[in-house]
Amino acid sequence: MISSSASCIRVLGIVLTIFGIYLLFSPIIALLKWIPLVGWLLGGLVSVAAFIFALLVGTIISTFVIAVAWVFFRPLIGIPLLIGAGVGSYFTFYYDWG
After folding, report:
1. Which of 14, 22, 24, 35 could form a disulfide with 54 if both were Cys (CB 3.0 to 4.6 A apart)?
2. Residue 63 in contact with residue 81, Cβ under 8 Å?
């Protein structure tokens, strides 16, 4: 019972982190939708870009927080999660894709 509720809370925390980061962009999306003729297109493009950004950053942040908590209780799971969060943040923010 406890492990299933903890898993649900973890997944809910990840989803809510992604949703919260997406909501940070909602004023910009709303302002872009006011532009005549092309506002719906710009708002849609920025919505998709904001969702992708929120998905990447929210997942990395949530994984990092979960990993830090697990390092103290289950180091064999926490340390690979920390490595995964570090690799994810490196490829998201520092790797030169072009």
Report:
1. 22
2. yes
